[in-house]
Write a structure and sequence with these properties.
Chain lengths: 491, 491, 491, 491
């Protein structure tokens, strides 16, 4: 196992989880993107933005891009008057979550720039692992940077490319960059989608009537009443323009497809989404069933940590022949734990978010199902709460393996020293959280539950095996990083 | 069955659902009330207020009341700086929901007034049924009114009472008023709780360390880490003051106890709350079991309309031996359907709130469990969504009887003509919503599931039998109201 | 000299300066009131409110009152969307300034209440001197108070009056109250103006086309392009209703007319206003001329403290045959000194507000003209600034007599101990502010300059002679107040 | 006369008037800049920004730049909490006014970027006349633009320069650019000021204790209690760094000094400022005296259009031996006419801003003094108002020559067709505004009044003689522009 240094230690800038939605050939494109982003709100709650392409009288010829970005939730930002300022038949949007220090508007996407060929907007989900290196080179050539986001590097490379078309300039730019990227570009007359060759972050597309929708998850299509066609393939570019009624597909980079993020299936994606051909809810339910097979225990009731633990709990109870009950009630007026920026809020959130149903728990042997243990503080509080409600035994079951390594490809994970599983044995963790017993799902069991060949996944957060080298780290002066880099190279 | 005219037709003013929390003998009383109100946020999301009693240097003697009220959610309104302006060891708070036209700050509670004996604050959950009549009388005597709320009448009566103590003035005032009321009063040095003799709206109390907490539901005590002692009895007054370490209990009105709102158990209260000695979650689960016994149907899967339908679904699946699955996923970034003010938002809310998990539904005979059908528009959209997700049969099961009559005691119900069950047969409703079959839980079955003698309940919304006469209606000139009044009198 | 205790010592509540505007028979009444209040913004910058009377379809018969009040400036509060919510052909408005502790929205006017005869709104400029006494009596009869304003007492008395018409109820109410009051009432179908028998605060009326306008100062009429008819007479009531094209005038109280506030002429009113038949600008210019006659001095240039000192400076220079120059430049982005609530802001304001024009001052013997010295801190800073700009002599001339006593009739004056002239001789003040010489205008000279019989004025702030007894003070337990009261009685 | 096409026709982007303030060697640098900008608020009211250089523990070595920009007034934007986030001993700030369409935050200054040598901030007053041309070239080399401001071009050129030091890179960049620029740069450890070789926009510096202040006008120094040293010379660079206690001065471009903006003296600068060695107030007073000599007229009173016409009126009255009076009163709660973005607001502003003092005007022959006539609409309303107040004659006198040409060097002037003097004779204008007589000050008289050699001034707005060629226009396809360009080249 290699990575002893978390993303946050190394670099405050990169490492956001985000959501994308693009709509083409739809007279109310920005309204559609607004709804599509609403369905993706779980992927980023700190800022949101939409760029539309409109052709008004005042904008002859190809028309102009209109944009609005702000801090906050989609439905707070995009009121009707704001959406009316985003006219046109094509639009792309972005929701973003970032670490606390960098929740600045200047990093909110989509980015829009003017360059020699006019206006260009981009929205990015993922993280580029050589962006800092390339940024240094570009700065030496005179490029100015306005954000601390890796995404800005893409725009500079596109602008400096000598290729003739926007598509070719994008390909040229991305051939210089490595890492995880699902991208949406918008310029007057054209929308372009691109997914990295490893296929790390999800991206799919489909139709709503005659309109095309590209989104991070199929839940956006579902909300819009559309039909999922398929995932955008790793290394595939889709070009939507005014000259073609169908998108043109180009395999611009050889498909490697060895980097699909397994954590999307475990935790991040919405249960109703279909990712890599598999419904997330069903995968999670099967993880619960597998967990029951691997680590069953005599008990009276199975209760989930709502809401993310619900499908696995149902599966666990089903397989174990135990009663499933909602033993904890969730407040609906507080956001998701994982996604709030400061530790202080996370603690407060636990107290305000979950309350036990005593009748379900009192005098019972209880199995509690959660999807992961990160720092352990939340789990400890939940176990305490279950004991306090009168449980006679509290068996904690986790529907994923221990989280041991940080993610460099776009999910914000805590500092290494806060990753409990990295420092302590399972029994030490059990003791820390105060449970009668504790078991995690095996890596093999998890992969099997999803039903996709394990080689297609990135499961570095559970295994420490990184499918894409992290170039940026080699430029650090930190001696620890040199070690890391050395180790990384021998991988 | 009597009431053909909804509350909204008769009177725009009254008819809010609300939540109360009072804290006594606690140095951070307003912080505690804030947390207690957070747990009651489901009872009212339009406005919130807190009044505290503090003794600063600048306020010699008995000290002063401090107050803050605003439109919005509890955690938006009560930021730390605001709470710091609410010092003192006693505080009461209120969350409020009202119909659209009356969501004005002037009606937000608690109300605070100056009168001959100093300052007095009141927070009220419920609805007084002779408030308009008494208001007219008071106006003729020269009283000025600032709000359209029935609660203001209470303060005028207290102020005009010739009794010597605040307790006696309150008793004097409430002996003039009829209807549903759970009340909290605060004055310098004293907090008083009072529940109407019918016990319509819930009210309970308990301890957190040495502090006393009175709240609409026990979930507030649970969040604060306290212990529920018992419900405040119908007709009971509890007096908390600086001279006694325990509250004094007075049975100020003979307990009738024939009006406990059954709808709190079916829909309104939080599942973890204990009301009338019964945990709401368990009652709802048993309603689901009873529903399975009454109206079972061959099927492949049972899915709830989240979140309120979940406990009944679990019970239904358990009793019917069917698989329970979360076949619909709820967005967490939108509030509760029932509780938003405008019809427009309600419709939009349905589209943005629930998305189907196709794999769970496709090719299956599906039982969908909801707690009620009000207008039918939401149910229709849900059934459509389940069909669209590929169900082969859609069996709608409702864990309460048909809603046929409006509530006059404090829950906002739609206009009579929008109450589907009042105008159509069950089969017509089934056809309207497009389900394969439709069944409601019987009134008897529902009462049995809760496990309390049916005579203790008000189930007027299901039966049309109103335990308290509605005086105000007799003053209307509307001929329809005269008819209503006549009918009502023969009840 | 009598009053050793300032208003602020005695009572935080009362004592605001305010402005009123009412418009009748104008389809855009609230827009007119908005403009009228804009012209009166100098009379109160802390809150503003408008009440209109509209007859929509939804409000059959007499129609309803619509209202909006908020903290802030008129043009910030009354945006176009807000004004559109204030329909109707009659409207009254109010701007308000109060001492810091009581700048609460609950005290913002106009007040609107429901009582036995429907809705009633009131706006008040002035201060009632027996309001606390009457309030106590009303509280003992059961009246509830929501504000700390003396104005609320008026509404209670109107509501309790047994008279048949609104006019008579108002007369009945005001016959119980003493002090300074210019009042505007609005109810469906009627607007009523009333000025106290002493005529303390100004009130005038006029026409704009077919519409009637009542306002604190004629500047509102001027802005609206209307014609001033005359002042409302002391003790006169004007009734505007839908049955008469002209207002009806009733002399409801015998005119005493011995209380016209002289400070309106010196400082408070706008220079373009015509008050008591005299243009304020001209009176101030003549005060400057008289000051030159009384206290001329050899000098090179006369400069005003802008803007209130400008007319007197022009007069002084004219009479003395000296050069007038704008030797200090005022920043336009800061409000008026006198009218900001906190001492801290006042100090900061001086630094940010005035800057010297060195070329005008350097090497010159300078006469600086201001309208008053209150605490002396501002004057000291101004004199320092003039010295620093290179003056060889700095002669301070004040266009009013020394301010020695607080106002009880509606102008917020500083605490007695902060009134420099009350504690120090003129020469001590001169030394404190650091001027070469200092002179004030004589009381006789000031009265003469305005050109009205001195008996008609209240000049208590300069003379300590109060035309109306201050009843409220006699009820205080404060021993100092007893002394005051005794002294006051011997007056 | 050449320019028939206004700046607004040609280019929406450039053409702002702005104000700058930089402070060095002062522990509360951002507080000082805040105060300095407050004194410059008249130069730009649409947005403001401050960048500071601080060295916290978290920012080892050279420290970091901190910045805040927002739309609005200086004192609204820079509250105490905001200023506390701008630590450090060096800071630069900017206030900005722009045409309506471009009042976007993205164009608010100072701009801050990251480039190969770290962070760099810039604030700019003036307008570059070949920025569009250079921008096109830069875009072709791959530069990305985020704003529509000409200032962004400067940063790109600095970033692309191959020079070794920041100073040299700035010189390199500015040698490519032409037009009007007063610039402040800030990087960790250094503040740099630079004024263009023509000296179009003002820039001066001085000391406050041991701290250095650079500002657009000396009024900032005056507010801060500092001492003006001198203007920054045309073509001079001043470098403030941590290694030197005094700024180093470099004459980086040969001083031409033929472009000092005469309009600063006439209208834009504050009267207390000293520009080009002359106090603005005195220059304006002498313009009034000269105007009286050139165009005297028998009259009874001279009144200014406040506030900008006051000094000239005083001079006119003095020279003509006429009485000076403030015949119009200005509302203090509305901003400056010239500086508001939309025509609609400008019209409304006139109505709300000025009211006549009838007693001063009635029955008199009145001379009204204003500093300029731009569109004529305001003048017409003022003349109407004076007639309506009872004047028997209204003689309009303008203390500058007719405005016939737009400004390309940083002052926003109206479209050519709205410049009255460009289309009509003086007598036609007189008829349009409805005055008895109308006269302008001669160009020679104006120059003489200031007392500087006329060759040093740019007076293109009055004469059409542009000291700097406007390169950008030659790239337009507009045939009218070609004509313009041709004409321009023959200049």
């Amino acid at each position: 196992m290699i990575t002893h240094y978390s993303s946050t230690d190394l670099d405050d800038h990169f490492h956001d989880e985000c959501g994308l939605c693009g709509v083409w050939n739809q007279s109310e494109a920005s309204n559609y993107v607004y709804l599509g982003l609403h369905a993706l709100q779980h992927r980023g709650q700190e800022s949101a933005g939409i760029v539309s392409w409109g052709r008004g009288e005042q904008h002859g010829g190809a028309g102009s891009l209109f944009h609005h970005r702000a801090m906050g939730h989609v439905n707070e930002i995009f009121t009707q008057p704001v959406l009316e300022e985003l006219p046109g038949s094509g639009a792309i949007g972005h929701v973003r979550y970032s670490t606390a220090g960098e929740s600045h508007l200047k990093n909110a996407q989509p980015f829009v720039v003017d360059y020699h060929s006019g206006q260009l907007a981009v929205a990015h989900n993922g993280n580029l692992v050589n962006a800092k290196t390339v940024r240094k080179e570009l700065e030496l050539k005179g490029s100015l940077f306005r954000s601390t986001s890796d995404t800005e590097v893409i725009l500079h490379l596109v602008s400096r490319s000598r290729e003739k078309t926007t598509e070719d300039r994008i390909i040229d730019a991305m051939s210089r960059l490595e890492g995880a990227y699902s991208l949406l570009f918008l310029e007057p007359g054209r929308m372009i989608a691109l997914r990295d060759p490893h296929g790390v972050r999800p991206l799919c597309f489909g139709k709503v009537g005659e309109s095309w929708v590209v989104a991070s998850e199929s839940t956006s299509l579902s909300l819009l009443g559309g039909t999922l066609i398929r995932d955008v393939e790793p290394g595939e570019m889709l070009i939507f323009d005014t000259d073609h009624s169908e998108p043109r597909s180009l395999q611009v980079f050889p498909k490697q497809g060895n980097g699909h993020c397994i954590f999307e299936h475990v935790y991040f994606a919405k249960p109703d989404s279909v990712i890599d051909g598999h419904t997330v809810y069903e995968s999670r339910r099967r993880m619960g069933m597998q967990l029951a097979r691997e680590s069953g225990v005599p008990a009276d009731v199975v209760i989930p940590v709502p809401d993310s633990g619900v499908p696995a709990s149902i599966g666990f109870a089903e397989e174990a022949g135990l009663m499933f009950q909602m033993g904890m009630v969730r407040s609906h007026y507080i956001g998701r734990t994982f996604i709030e920026p400061s530790q202080r809020v996370r603690n407060f959130g636990v107290k305000l978010k979950l309350l036990p149903v005593k009748d379900v728990i009192q005098g019972k042997r209880v199995v509690v199902i959660d999807d992961s243990i990160v720092r352990g503080t939340t789990s400890k509080k939940i176990v305490d709460m279950v004991w306090a409600a009168g449980a006679t035994e509290v068996h904690m079951r986790i529907s994923s393996p221990p989280t041991v390594s940080p993610c460099y490809y776009g999910i914000d994970t805590p500092r290494q020293q806060e990753l409990l599983a990295n420092r302590f044995s399972i029994d030490e963790i059990r003791e820390y959280i105060g449970a009668t017993s504790l078991a995690y799902l095996s890596l093999e069991g998890m992969i099997q539950s999803i039903g996709i060949d394990g080689k297609e996944f990135c499961h570095a957060c559970f295994s420490g095996n990184y499918p894409i080298d992290v170039t940026d780290l080699e430029y650090s002066d930190d001696p620890q990083l040199s070690i890391f880099s050395a180790l990384n190279n021998t991988k």
